[in-house]
Amino acid sequence: MPSSIASRLVRAFAVAAGVALAVSIGGEADGAAAAAPKLTIRVIEKDFSFALSRRSVPRGARVTFLVRNAGAVPHDFVIAGHRSRLLRPGQSATLRVRFTRKGPKGFLCSVPGHARLGMKGALGVSTVPPAPTPAPSAPSPVVVSGSARLTKVGDFERPVLVTSPPGDARDVFVVEQPGTIRVVQDGVTLAQPFLDIRDEVYFTSEPGLLSLAFAPDWATSRLAYVFYNQRKGNDDSRIAELRSVAANPLVADTGSLRTVLEVVKPWENHNGGMLQFGPDGDLYASIGDGDSGVQNAPGAFAQTLDDLLGSIIRIDPRHDAPYAIPAGNPFAGVVGARPELWAYGLRNPWRFWLDAATGDMVVGDVGYGAREELDLIPAGTSGQNFGWPCFEGNTPFDGTAHCDKPVAPILEISHAGGNCSIIAGVVVRDPRLPTLANRLLFGDYCTGAIESVRVEGGRVVDRDALGLTVPALSSFGVDGAGRVYVTSTSGPVYRLDPA
């Protein structure tokens, strides 16, 4: 029997029986298969769309597709001419394919009419990307140590952010991770919290109530936005809108909570969690990749564009329901990509700062086990891919991952000195601290040491330590007068004052 006829019969029998199917796309010799990277892609079938855990693979990859029908009608999965069996709702199948040629490989559901309704797409097959070009080395630092001191504002329950309404130099709002927001007015912590949603917030090591942002027109709208983990799913993230009670702007009306956006997570950690309104009036949020490697490979969702994991997003929560996509979002209109995306390829962007004076955004992305990094999104740009999991900092991490045009960090920091989790800070604009003017603060959760850098022309031009340490440093913040605050999950909140 000719081998071509035999292989077709074997393939037909395998499809009919619903067994795992191993095929090769591109005619690669069997000897090369042993060296090919092995990857797993989860395929969720819905009515009527596909959700893939990754949208690209390196050339030569041997891919196992784990296909599950989560819809209400039968579907199959066809890629590059090879088909899974027809799956009834709730059924699963495994399809193994080896890709040896570059270029997009189309996939679809072959049930008549389903592809036309949206069940189709393409998997990219590319060569492994080159390493990002490291940022130029910085010159000698400017000495800023000894220019500031820490003044304790109070003790709180795991404080993770300090902020104030626009132009409010009197009231300081402290976000407590278990689910409350306290108000410090003229240096005195008020008895009544601004918000208490502990019954809705899932709180443990990383999840909890993580951020607060006031609308630019807070003085008239009394609208604010919170980011927290819910008591459902894998502690799925929620961005919600709220309004203060009519009689008191320092107390939120919990009945006004409105869901703006929810992010379904694969695991409980890597939430991101920062909210900030930009000078454009739009709301920016950081979303972690959702799993440090417990249920999925590290970075499994950071390069996927059809979800929000591992990204910075930009939305307009004031128009349309539940929000509008601002004009100029880089992936709006791109087939298979979420239009909310502003930048991606991040691991756990816990804190970022969008500087209203320059329009630059600096993101602190928490590393895996060796490197921490600061990433820059210059004013007027977007769509950057910061390279996780292909790279941790500038160091190659996952050689089987594909990252399209990865952007190097402006600063990477080794764990050798005891660092473990970078905490990106704010750009200092406090006129009382002229030595720190226009400098970006940052620190580390494990060492607690506060440092500063000056960023010019897209790179760090100097770096120095302040000579100040906050154990369990969790975040930085700014009040309505431009004064800078530092929080510690141990409880204290400090204000940065002139030495």
Description:
The strands form nine sheets. Strands 1-8-5-2-3 form a five-stranded mixed sheet, with helices on one face. The protein has a five-stranded mixed sheet with strand order 4-10-9-6-7, with no helix packed on it. It has three helices and 37 strands. By secondary structure, it is mostly beta strands. The termini are far apart.
Question: Globular, elongated, flat, extended or rod-shaped: what is the shape?
Answer: globular
Question: Beta-strand level of the residues, as a percent range?
Answer: 35-45%
The span between the termini is: 89 Å
Largest sheet: 5 strands, mixed
Unreliable segments (pLDDT under 50, ≥5 consecutive)? Answer: 1-35, 137-141
List keywords for this structure.
single chain, 499 residues, mainly beta, five-stranded mixed β-sheet, 3 helices, 5% helix, disordered N terminus
Sequence-ordered SSE layout with sheet pairings:
Elements: H1 3-17, E1 21-25, H2 30-33, E2 38-46, E3 49-52, E4 56-58, E5 62-69, E6 78-79, E7 82-83, E8 92-99, E9 105-108, E10 120-126, E11 148-155, E12 159-163, E13 171-176, E14 180-185, E15 188-189, E16 195-196, E17 209-214, H3 218-221, E18 223-229, E19 237-245, E20 248-263, E21 272-277, E22 283-287, E23 311-315, E24 341-344, E25 351-354, E26 361-365, E27 371-377, E28 391-392, E29 395-396, E30 411-414, E31 422-427, E32 440-444, E33 449-456, E34 459-469, E35 473-478, E36 484-488, E37 492-498
Parallel strand pairs: 1-8, 2-5, 4-10
Antiparallel strand pairs: 2-3, 5-8, 6-7, 6-9, 9-10, 11-37, 12-13, 13-14, 14-15, 14-16, 17-18, 18-19, 19-20, 21-22, 22-23, 23-24, 25-26, 26-27, 27-30, 28-29, 31-32, 32-33, 33-34, 35-36, 36-37
